[in-house]
Amino acid sequence: MDEMQRGYLDGLVKGSPEPGGNTSFSYRHGFWNGRDDARGEARASASELRNMARIAVAKDRGLMNPCF
């Protein structure tokens, strides 16, 4: 299981704490997707979420400035 999947599963759990800065960008992206699914509301379109996932992975791999 990768970080994004772990974050997603944690986000599905009601009352789980928000991820802190000690977690990867991929984990945080997955967490917010899980939280959105648990609430039944999306924060962006599917294409935007896929792009956000690509950006999170790039940041984790050091291929993109983490400040953006």
Question: How would you describe what is shown here?
Answer:
The chain has one domain. It is 59% helix and 0% strand. It has three helices and no strands. The longest helix has 15 residues, at 25-39. The protein is globular. The N and C termini lie far apart (26 Å).
Give a quick precis of the structure.
The protein has 68 residues and is mainly α. The chain has helices at 3-12, 25-39, 46-60.
Number of helices: 3
* Whole-angstrom Rg: 12 Å
What form results from the Cα inertia axes? globular
Distance between the termini: 26 Å
Count up the domains: 1
| Overall residue-averaged pLDDT value | 93
The biggest beta sheet reads:
none
State the order of secondary-structure elements, H for helix, E for strand. HHH
Keywords:
59% helix, 0% strand
Summarize the topology.
Layout: H1 3-12, H2 25-39, H3 46-60
Helix pairs in contact: 1-2, 2-3
